[in-house]
Amino acid sequence: MDTILIIDDNSAVRDALSLLLNVNGFQTDVAATPTAGVKRLAQGDIALVIQDMNFSRDQTDGSEGKQLFYAIRQDFPDLPVILLTAWAELETAVELVKAGAADYLGKPWDDAKLLATVNNLLELAELSGQQRQQQRELSERRQHTAQKYNVAGLIYQAEVMQRLVETALQVARADVPILITGPNGAGKEKIAELIQQNSAVKTGPFIRVNAGALPADLMEAELFGAESGAYTGLNKTRIGRFEAADGGTLFLDEIGNLSLSGQMKLLRVLQTGEFERLGSSQTRHCQVRLISATNTDLPQAIRAGAFREDLFYRLNVIELQLPALHQRREDILPLARHFLAGRELSLEAVRALESYDWPGNVRELQNILTRASLLAPSNIIGVADLGLPAAPQLAPRPAFEPDAEQIQTTLANTSSVAEAARQLGLSRQALYRRMDKYGINHS
């Protein structure tokens, strides 16, 4: 069990706090001086510190407590510290809370409030420790992936992307069609490139075709080729993309836009590896790994009669769902720094990028930062340089003052004060102060 360290020169205070905490199931240790306290911290196993603000008889301004707090902060930046303060040192205590102290309690303290504070701080510290451990594990997984595989320059930090990459790499060498779904601009082609680079046909051609950019009357000729004279203006044989991709990979983007006639021919290629060029009766053969992508709701298109159900099931042997950028916000800054190529972002610009919804996803982010890099007058990219649409999320956040009913409802629907504070957009200390203000108790 982790220990709560009490640092106070008054033995009566140390004994009273130790008794209170021990009776309520906490393990404690004590130190009478800042030096002894720092020495005990160095031994480890301390989960929380309760410290006094004065340790010498002639000191009443809290300067000793301030010095002790910053000494703890330097070596243990994540360790929660509760300050015990008299009214004379209140201003200093408030300053230290702003500097990162977890909370302050006046003397004499309220036992119930102190216990509630300790419980919630330890709960949050455990959660933070778990989150840090998860981040370390995720970082190790990313490093292992990058060392073992060719990630095709893919930039990401989000857990959801790591899972997607791991799945894509797992199926990359299987000789089955893969369907990548997700919104426009999210990076479906990049995932296709990652699959191709780690496939059994990685040394073969990698042919890309955007079905959404092709006129319907030219789509079949683009995919399957056409003989000279097959349509007006074609004076020589045209090699189709399937033929060009023989022995390699064909990435067919926006497959939901393929005509029904083209869908039928595509189904035949997938089933038999056979096709004919337009204007020819000669059957040709190819061995192609097909990766397709779409932002279309294909099941809905099937119900509307716009997409063949049998083709859908041939394409959808493996489906990889690529999330929108706003669903993986951890990726925004790494991608932004990559696109800026050495330029810096102001703090306000960082906040704007992280709060914007990115309807155009990674493509929109790249376009905005490319423009900002060209037009910004200095090396620091500011909010104005981004040219994001004026929206509430770009304005300074107003002070948030939830009322008593909102606080009570949030507390009733969450498992802890820490979680309620997160949902209300407040610090734990701020929530406690509002609970005191409104007379709200939470067991």
Detail the topology: elements first, then pairings:
Layout: E1 3-7, H1 11-23, E2 27-31, H2 34-42, E3 46-52, H3 63-75, E4 81-85, H4 90-98, E5 103-106, H5 111-148, H6 159-171, E6 178-181, H7 188-197, E7 206-210, H8 216-224, H9 241-244, E8 249-253, H10 260-272, E9 274-275, E10 284-285, E11 289-294, H11 298-303, H12 309-315, E12 318-321, H13 332-340, E13 344-345, H14 347-355, H15 361-375, E14 380-381, H16 383-386, H17 404-412, H18 417-424, H19 428-438
Parallel strand pairs: 1-2, 1-3, 3-4, 4-5, 6-11, 6-12, 7-8, 8-11, 13-14
Antiparallel strand pairs: 9-10
Domain Response regulatory: 3-122
InterPro entries: AAA+_ATPase, AAA_lid_NorR, CheY-like_superfamily, Homeodomain-like_sf, HTH_Fis, P-loop_NTPase, Sig_transdc_resp-reg_receiver, Sigma_54_int
Keywords: ATP-binding, DNA-binding, Nucleotide-binding, Phosphoprotein, Transcription, Transcription regulation
